[in-house]
Design goal:
3 helices; 67 residues; 0% strand; elongated
Length: 67
């Protein structure tokens, strides 16, 4: 931001830029929200084969001969 301001204006200090960023509503909305880490949940089953997971892959765009 400072480099772009120097192209058009003179004597714009870092303090003025910081003040603008603190008061700018759009700048506050654009601030990144810190992401939380990956949360891993343990799946508990009461008996064998009571839970399963299937990964579906669409292979229509990569045909392998007849298949």
């Amino acid at each position: 931001m400072e480099a772009e301001l120097k192209k058009k204006y003179c004597y714009v200090t870092g303090q003025v830029i910081d003040l603008y960023l603190e008061l700018c509503e759009q700048c506050q909305l654009k601030k990144k929200i810190p992401k939380r880490g990956l949360v891993v949940h343990t799946v508990l089953s009461h008996y064998m084969n009571s839970w399963c997971q299937v990964d579906l892959i669409d292979m229509q765009f990569e045909p392998d001969g007849y298949y």
